[in-house]
Amino acid sequence: MSFQLEYSSDAYDVEVGNGVIEIDSPFNIGLNYSYPSGSNLRAFVIGGREIGFQYSFTLDPKKRRQPGGLDAAPMPILGRDAATFADMQLNDRRALTVARDQLAKVLQDDGIDLEAFRVQAGRATVRIQNNRWDVEAQAIGRTARAMANTLPSNIETFVIIPQVRGVANSTITLQRSDLEELDTDYDGAWRSLARTRIDDAPISDRDGEVPGLYPKFTYGLGPYLTFSFFDPNEPVRYEVGAQFSFTYAPRPGLTFGRPVPPAAGRQYR
């Protein structure tokens, strides 16, 4: 807790003359409380008449504001003997299709879209769209577990490529045997990272793309809320209304769309 006392030599003659502010005292007083998390709560009196409250906090983009552990637990790794499918031949297109569809269903239940699936010589490559997890590593870990539980046991290497609107941003390569070994390891998190290869995003290609994925067309009708601050005559204004929005993506990485503002809105003070 801290206390501030300030003397201001500025009488704000112009502002007082224009009726913007009234000054009864040159002293400003403030009371500030700092929380252990780094946030601050402050109350103050300015000019003997204006009363204000302020709450501020800092964010580190590299550090989560809230710890994990409140999410639903990821699925356990069943082991290759309990995998959903038996070994398959790489030229068995029907088996590949069944494996892809089963994997897509499991991922969808976890808030992840499967956008591409390819198998080559004991190596499975997937492209995913994360729609739920705020930390990308969570989506990657859950994708790897889903692959371990649904893909045939003769697939050893998993390659996971997270995408945003069809644009790849990295390539994660890991071994299925490492997942199985470290599933219940107390230090499994950093051991898994140490054994994982992380590369730059690959050159965009559409090999193995899920049929019917593109073109995409989405639309929606929903409410909107906008704010305006610091107008001397109307310090706080907001507007509410409804708006129609749409997007059209003919191929990965190319999206057209915009929200359509309403013809007229109603303003409130």
Automatic annotation (TrEMBL):
Protein name stated in the entry: YjbH domain-containing protein
Species whose genome carries this gene: Tateyamaria armeniaca
Pfam family membership, one: YjbH
Family matches, as InterPro entries: YbjH (IPR010344)
